[in-house]
Amino acid sequence: MSDHSNPVGVLVMSYGTPESMEGVEAYYTHIRRGHPPTAEQLEDLTSRYRAIVGGVFPLRENTNRQAAALQRTLDELAGAGAYKCYQGLKHAAPFIEDGVAAMAEDGVKEAVAIVLTPQYSSMSVGGYMKRAKEEAEKRGIRLATVESYHLHPELISALAKRVSEGLDKFGDGRGDALVLFSAHSLPEKILELKDPYPEQLLETSRAVAGLAGVERWQFTWQSAGQTGQPWLGPDILDTLDALAREGTKNVLVAPVGFVSDHLEVLYDIDIEARRFSEERGIRLERIAMLNDDPQYMKALAESVLEASKR
After folding, report:
1. Does the annotation flag 120 for ligand binding?
2. Residue 59 confidence (pLDDT) above 80
3. 152 labeled binding residue
4. Mean pLDDT across the stretch 55-67?
5. For residue 241, what are the domain limits?
6. Does 264 belong to an annotated binding site?
7. pTM for the full predicted model
8. 110 & 170 share domain
């Protein structure tokens, strides 16, 4: 797609997070499309951050490490200078538009956009790509996109290894443990759009379970928004409640819709779901997140290289 004297830009997109506790209100306001949160909403979010991070925001650091690791992997696979990574975040600086602008300033004419989310949804990845394409068009950059990579062999292998390692935590109870795959819920209206998100998540889960030799597994949703409209379910807490009533004692959560340690993992699973489980006599463990795992980086890099050939 380009020679080394004029590298292909790689726009690495993710949700974004505040850089400090002082930035939480502005971040939340951006998520709410310019509408400031109520005092109660702001306290709820800041209390969750305080519970997990104490003023340090792991997603920001993780995203920086992921972008740097992807750059190294692309250099290894395609040669140093062939590709150059730029970050573009949905709800924090550098915003998606900032990432595209930085590419334009560097003279990039051709680029690939990829989101740090393996499965496609018109409401998530589709929204990122729309913003990136609009800005790229304004800047005269030809932009190829990676819509999803939910069945990339390196991704499935990395997740399967983590599931196997996670099950080992149960020792003698390993054989009785249930693997609970999870992902961020979205509004139910995506079903009317025949959005591929739910099925792609099931495909990822099936592939990981198959490679890890797991027969006892379920899929559940988590982290639904409070918008007054129905979201995809069942929610993880409802699923755990049902499992407790069925007598399940050991549960390994595998959040295959996420690739990084962040609020939905560190609070929603590690604190809220674990506490909920303990109250019902369930031991809940979680797989290690991918973060900058070399296999995950290879999945991203190979997806970028493939898209740049189109």
Report:
1. no
2. no
3. no
4. 78
5. 153-286
6. yes
7. 0.94
8. no
